[in-house]
Design a protein that fits this description.
Layout lengths: L1 H14 L5 H6 L3 H18 L4 H25 L5 H25 L16 H12 L2 H28 L1 H7 L1
Helix pairs in contact: 1-3, 1-5, 1-7, 3-4, 4-5
Length: 173
């Protein structure tokens, strides 16, 4: 599950907090989508960095499919559409699951342990703590939960209001 969780985190970071309003506006054109999808590649690479030697091609593959999927979505709709948003996310996650399953079977991992005393705070201890947290799936799942509940949730609530409650949306805006 190591790669699955980190690639999902990379996707959520790319699609939500790293997609500024400026990049969102650029996405109406193919080159804006290319810029947006290209953000996944360094994000995904950083999150699978210790195993990038075997995983880099998979990260690039997901970046390319991200571009294709988002370009398809732009062609299909000029205005936001909750159903296309959901289908878009399902397709993204499907590719991530396929790639992560491949990586999980190809790479043998050794998870480091943190063996420093709890009060020996130093730069080496901080580095060890960061490395330890990085390899803990629970920590990555907390980050995913945070992104889903804040950024993704906000977009989803906006789309639901816009589609299912347009009168209420107009009254409050």
């Amino acid at each position: 599950m190591f790669f699955l969780y980190r690639l999902i985190l990379a996707h959520l970071l790319t699609d939500f907090p790293f997609q500024t309003s400026y990049i969102f506006k650029l996405r109406k054109n193919w080159w804006g989508n290319l810029i947006h999808a290209s953000i996944f590649i360094p994000t995904g690479a950083i999150l699978v960095l210790p195993f990038l030697g075997k995983a880099w091609l998979c990260v690039v593959f997901i970046g390319i499919t991200h571009f294709i999927i988002d370009q398809w979505k732009v062609i299909k709709t000029k205005d936001g559409n909750i159903w296309l948003f959901l289908v878009d996310q399902i397709i993204h996650f499907s590719f991530i699951i396929i790639v992560a399953t491949f990586l999980e079977t190809e790479i043998v991992m050794v998870v480091p342990t943190l063996s420093l005393p709890p009060f020996a705070f130093s730069l080496s201890y901080l580095k060890g703590l960061i490395v330890y947290a990085y390899f803990q799936d629970k920590f990555i799942l907390y980050l995913i939960g945070y992104l889903v509940s804040t950024f993704t949730g906000a977009v989803l609530i906006y789309e639901i209001e816009r589609v299912f409650f347009p009168k209420i949306r107009k009254e409050t805006v």
